[in-house]
Amino acid sequence: MKKGKFIICLPVLLFFMSFRAMCADAKTAPLDLPSKEALATMTHEQKEELVQQMKDRTETIKAMDKSQLTKDERKQLRAELKAMKKKPAQSPESISPLAR
Length: 100
Description:
The chain is mainly α. Helix content is 62%, strand content 0%. The longest helix is centred in the N-terminal third of the chain and has 21 residues, at 2-22.
């Protein structure tokens, strides 16, 4: 009997979990940072645009209501901020928006 309930509940649970992920706002999606090689081949305008995107994403994260997030979601946000802070440091001519 327990196995039958499990078999019925598992797909329903997975459906609701995937639905929640699909409903996430595009503004909360992590920023896709370029690789070190791609960063080296970028023009100055592209680098300025990337820095502006990073600033916007940083402000979005700061403005979020983190009290409603799970521990894993907060951990992902911290990791994303660390990655954004670390990535521009790999290129000497780019400026980190988080270092200011």
